Structures are given as C-alpha cells and as structure tokens.
User: What shape does this take?
Amino acid sequence: MLDTRYYGEFGGAYLPEILVSTFEELGTAFREAKDDPGFWEEYKNLMSTYSCRPTPLTFAENLTEYFGGPRMYIKREDLNHTGAHKANNVMGQGLLVKRMGKSRVIAETGAGQHGVATATMAAKFGLSCTIYMGELDVARQRPNVFWMERLGARVVPVQDGSRILKDAINAALRDWAGNMDDTHYVLGTACGAHPFPEMVSYFQSIIGQEARRQIMDREGRTPARIYACVGGGSNALGIFSSFYNDPTELVGVEAGGQGLETGRHASRLASNDGTPGIAQGYKTYFLQNDEGQMQDTHSVAAGLDYVGVSPILAALWEEGKIRFEAATDGEVLAAFTLTMEKEGLIPALESSHAFARAFKEAPDLGVDDIILINQSGRGDKDIFTVADAFSDQQWSKFILKKAEEYGAELVS
Ligand SMILES: *Cc1c(COP(=O)(O)O)cnc(C)c1O
Assistant: This one.
C-alpha cells in the first residue's frame, strides 16, 4: 500500500500510477533501515570516515565581541566532504541504494552542488550516475558540471520549459518511471513525495543530534535561537531536529533577493507570496501565479532558488513552531564579508542568509544568550558571484587573460 504521510495538510504522495510501486519499494526499504539498529551506526561510521563527522561547533569569539553578545556558535557543516550538508543526505541514500541492490542513481541539480555530491557518492559506491540539469544551469554552472563529469557522471542538459531546476526534476522523474528496476532517484532536499521529506530530514538530523550534545557540553543549556537558511529546507530541518522540545526559538531564513517588496526573491513563507498547491508529487507552499504556474525566483545564492519548501517546514510554520524571515542579497553579502573578516570563515552565500538574520537580531538579545548558526556549506564555490558583487578588477583581468589564452588556442 502506498504510504502517504502528511504534515498537517502538507506532504502526501501525488504520483502518476507508474511510479507508485517504486515509491512503495523505497518507503519499505527506508522503514526497514530505520528499524534496523545497526543502520544508524553504519551511517555514522561512514560519515565519520568518509566525511567529517562529527563536524565541529565553533565559538565565534570575535563576532560575539563585535556585537557585544549574544554568544555566537557556528555548526560547521561546511567541513563535510564536497563542502556542504548535502553529503549527509546523499551518503545516507547511497546506503539505502546498496540495501535495495540497485546499480544506478539519478538526480536533479540546479546550482550543481547536489549533482557533485551525488556523483561523488556514486563513485564511492560504484554506481552508474546520470544528473539532470536545466540547459541554462549547465551553461551557468560550468565548474560543477566539470566536476560531475570528472567524477564519472553523465550530465544531461534539459531543454524543456524554462530549462532550469524544476524542468530537471520533471526529466529525472521521467527517467525513473522508465528505469525503476535498477535505478534510484536521489532527491536533494526535504521536498517531493513521501518518503523523501521524512527520509532526507532523517539523514540530516545528525546535524541537530551533534549540535545539541556539543552545545550542552560547552554551555550546559540550549541556545535562545537557532538560525538556518532555507531553500528546500533540509539543513534547517537537520539542525532544528533535536531542539523541538526546548525553549529554543527556531528561525528559518529564506532568500529575500532584491527585497520582498520587489517580487524578485525566493521567499515562500516570510513573504506571504507563497500559496498552497500540489506539484512535483507533494503539497506545500509554492511561489506560483493564480493558474498554478511556477514563478521565477531570484537570489544571490543559487542553492536557495527554489519555488517550493519542505512540507514539514510548512506545517511547523503554520503551527507557529518555526519563525520565518528573509535576508536580502545586500544583507547577505555584508554578513558574508563580516564573517570572513572577523572569523576567517567563508560561509556559502546560502549559509550567509542565516548569518545575516542572526546579525540583524543580535542587538535584541542579552549578552549571555546563546545563538547557534548553521553554516550549511563553504563559500569557495561562490568565487564568481562574490567577485562580481564586489567588482574585483584583478579577478576580471584574470578571467579576461584566461579567455584570451583560450581564444588563441581555438584560433591556432
Ligand atoms: C543546497 C544548499 C542549501 C539549500 O538546501 P536546503 O535543503 O534548504 O538545506 C543551503 N546551503 C548550502 C550550502 C547548499 O549547498
């Protein structure tokens, strides 16, 4: 029987008939793994030997001093292999693929980070790998395409629709429907039809388990607030997971782009521009027009550029358990710069949304309050965007010089 878990009115599994049996198979494999006492140990062992778990909790001493309190802690998901929390989900799904005895994985990717993580997992587990990516994203994200291909994945540029992430998801689902016997679809965030939201947040809950233990060891109490950026919602659900029964306030930070009032953003909940709907197999808040057509989103952080949000977060938001805010591109670049200058950390532009909101609210908190910020990934990947944002002349010269060299090569 197809299990259709709901969170409040959100979630479910709205699937074409042809995919029902595959989702049933996956749901069963996931349930069995979860009930197997050895599985979580196997997962933790993999993550501590292949990635960098437990990731450290860093006390941001200089930022704390700069703001005159609160005491700021940073959970270092940037130290995972491939540079972000995405490894937690992808490696966990890799273990499930082994249990199901499948030989091939497929995935969708927008900015390319999830594609690189999936290609890495496929190489490690000896699986064949196909990544679907909108044609526009393939052109914009060449460095990630380069690494996916070097890692042995086949990258398929999707030419349908607006040739971006949502079109890549549809193409991946079509592939899955045709190749269910040997193929698993590695969804990248806590969205999609059941069991994906539950499964992805299960693997990401390792962040919260570690963070709660680490902060209790250091401070003997839980934080006043936790900040995490929200694209699909997987890193936020991961770090929030161990704090639902604490007096801790949980803050999800969406991409405010050029400002909520401009309409050029990717905020579904904080903006009130999102409306409930059903797409891509599940019900949640989407940025869509009156006819249910998905809208274009805008953000300096490609990884937050998504029209839907995890159904688990939508329900927790409606219940008042999580507060949602948005940070603008400008606030994000300022927070990125301050974090680099004060702490020597390079947060991903996605993660910098959480920093930006935390910095904005710091003056409201007491000196002895504790806040925890999830640094979901590292910002090295953002070199092109950041160099553009700060109009770095030397960087432009470097790129032009490279282009000239290639031009000369192409001519000769
Ligand atoms: C992909 C990505 C995100 C957004 O994904 P969530 O599922 O919302 O966590 C956030 N930060 C980084 C660094 C990412 O790569």
The radius of gyration is 21 Å. Residues 52-83+207-387 form a domain with the Rossmann fold fold (CATH 3.40.50.1100). The pocket of pyridoxal-5'-phosphate is lined by residues 84, 86, 113, 189, 229-235, 303-304, 348, 350-351, 376-377 (CB under 6 Å).
